[in-house]
Design brief:
Helix content is 42%, strand content 12%. The chain has helices at 31-37, 68-81, 97-111, 116-128, 133-140, 144-151, 158-165, 171-177, 182-193, 204-209, 245-265, and strands at 2-6, 11-13, 43-48, 61-66, 87-92, 231-234, 239-242. The N and C termini lie far apart (71 Å).
Length: 285
């Protein structure tokens, strides 16, 4: 990328900036340094056509892909002192929003790892720009599963995401809530708002969603393709579960009966069937 110093009057925040356009940034830990030494680390910008020359600047303006906090700190210094030195900028090619989003996120991760919801918002925008989870994983040094886990937050209602962002609920709770339909999420929020109720938290959310028991699909003795009920995928634990426990047991017991018949057909004298929930001790058999 070309490096040059650009007048602050020719700069504005890009819609592709990971930290957004409208939200005012926290400048607590950066403003003293900018006041004392100016902006030392280049902003990442891209050209933006401008029909009218900016007064005191050039016919071309640039939008800031990464460096929003440095820009705002420099703006404050300019107001305090009446002027500010042109800002160092690295200029990337115009037009590729996905590349701009990637540059913004990479640059921000290098300085301060964004919270998981901010990362989800940016990954979602990248997907809308045509990037696949595999593309995103290669760009950011993550596995495709890690990217899918982040994108799973998109299944959450905005209020739940905001509760998570503000640390009002923990990561285990929110990750299990990604298994829930929008209707079940609203049920959970109703419990949260009820002073006399105790909403399930942490690992209890999964049991609440799955009717008190979580039956993994790898426990089926029948072909899962024949199961017509819902299956819930848990991207955070690499498992999937049967949503309809009654239908599972109906099919499981039919599969057990078929196996018993098969054993007897080949000459087994006796086949013992243990009660549901009974522990199997190998030394007893």
């Amino acid at each position: 990328m070309e490096l040059k110093h650009i007048d602050i009057a020719c700069l504005s925040i890009s819609p592709a900036n990971m930290r957004g356009v409208k939200k005012a940034p926290d400048l607590t830990n950066i403003l003293p340094s900018v006041r004392a030494r100016g902006v030392l680390v280049p902003l990442i910008v891209r050209a933006k056509s401008c029909p009218e020359p900016v007064e005191g600047g050039s016919p071309t303006t640039y939008e800031i892909v990464a460096g929003k906090r440095r820009y705002h700190a420099a703006m404050i210094v300019a107001q305090e002192e009446g002027s500010v030195e042109p800002l160092p900028c690295a200029i990337m090619e115009a037009g590729d929003d996905a590349a701009a989003l990637e540059a913004s996120l990479i640059e921000n991760i290098a300085r301060l790892d964004p919270d998981e919801v901010t990362r989800w918002e940016t990954f979602t925008r990248l997907v809308k720009e045509g990037r696949s989870p595999e593309d995103i994983s290669l760009t950011f040094g993550l596995t495709a599963l890690q990217v899918k886990r982040t994108l799973a937050l998109g299944n959450l209602l905005p209020r739940i995401r905001n509760l998570y962002r503000s640390d009002s609920i923990d990561a285990v709770t929110v990750r299990h809530l990604t298994l829930a339909s929008k209707a079940r999420q609203r049920e959970w929020l109703t419990l949260l708002d009820d002073e006399d109720a105790r909403p399930p938290m942490g690992h209890h959310v999964k049991a609440w969603l799955l009717g008190g028991c979580a039956i993994a699909t790898d426990k089926a003795l029948f072909d899962s393709a024949d199961y017509k009920g819902g299956i819930v995928a848990d991207l955070f634990c690499d498992h999937s579960y049967f949503a309809d426990a009654d239908l599972f047991w109906q099919m499981q017991e039919a599969a057990i009966a078929e196996r018993i018949e098969g054993y007897r057909d080949v000459g087994w004298q006796d086949v013992a069937v243990m009660a549901r929930g009974e522990a199997f001790h190998s030394w007893e058999h």
